């Protein structure tokens, strides 16, 4: 009788193990190494316009973003049924394909899916068309400009050298009314809560 009960118990346990529902994961961007309350010495993707400068008060109001990076271990374990947070929205994973260095989810961006590419440091980066990264908005903050504040600005063409503007910042920016500062092309260095430099890179 005891043997029969043991056999029934182990048989039921094996059956339950075989029919157990798979566990799904939600793969979201890693939290950034900074917050709106603490800027020690960081470079942050940012967006702002010329109107966001308060030249009399010597400060800048900017919207801070973080680049969407994903843990490589989580990405390597991605499977159908998982959820990927991509461009701020949740996407149910139906298929995952490796195409050269690009991990294609649900047939890629143009089919309503996603693209992820590996980077050094054990992370993946979400990418869009023209190899642009994707970003998550953290919020807006007003910060003073450092006494040695400068602008490092790209040229009009890809091969043009950058200009470093260390004075007459307002005059320079107002003479360049076509200048756009947004996360795709702009990073701001903040040290101890002050804006030290604005770096604008050329993008297609």
| Largest sheet features | 5 strands, mixed, barrel
Helix-strand topology string? HEEEEEHEEEEEEEEHEE
DSSP strand tally:
15
> Tally the helices: what do you get?
3
Given helix and strand content, the structural type is mainly beta
Helix amount? 10-25%
- Averaged pLDDT, please? 88
Quote the distance from N terminus to C terminus. 78 Å
Strand content: 35-45%
Assign an overall shape: elongated
General description of the model:
- The protein has 204 residues and is mainly beta.
- Helices cover 14% and strands 42% of the residues.
- It is built from three helices and 15 strands.
- It has helices at 2-19, 72-76, 169-174, and strands at 26-27, 41-47, 53-54, 59-67, 69-71, 83-86, 89-92, 96-99, 102-105, 114-119, 123-127, 135-153, 163-165, 186-191, 194-200.
- 19% of the residues are buried.
Question: Could you give the topology of this structure?
Answer:
Blueprint: H1 2-19, E1 26-27, E2 41-47, E3 53-54, E4 59-67, E5 69-71, H2 72-76, E6 83-86, E7 89-92, E8 96-99, E9 102-105, E10 114-119, E11 123-127, E12 135-153, E13 163-165, H3 169-174, E14 186-191, E15 194-200
Parallel strand pairs: 1-6, 12-15
Antiparallel strand pairs: 2-4, 2-14, 3-4, 4-12, 5-11, 6-7, 8-9, 9-10, 10-11, 12-13, 14-15
Task: Provide key terms for this protein.
204 residues, mainly beta, 5-stranded mixed β-barrel, 5-stranded antiparallel sheet, 3 helices, elongated
Tell me briefly what this model is.
The protein has 204 residues and is mainly beta.
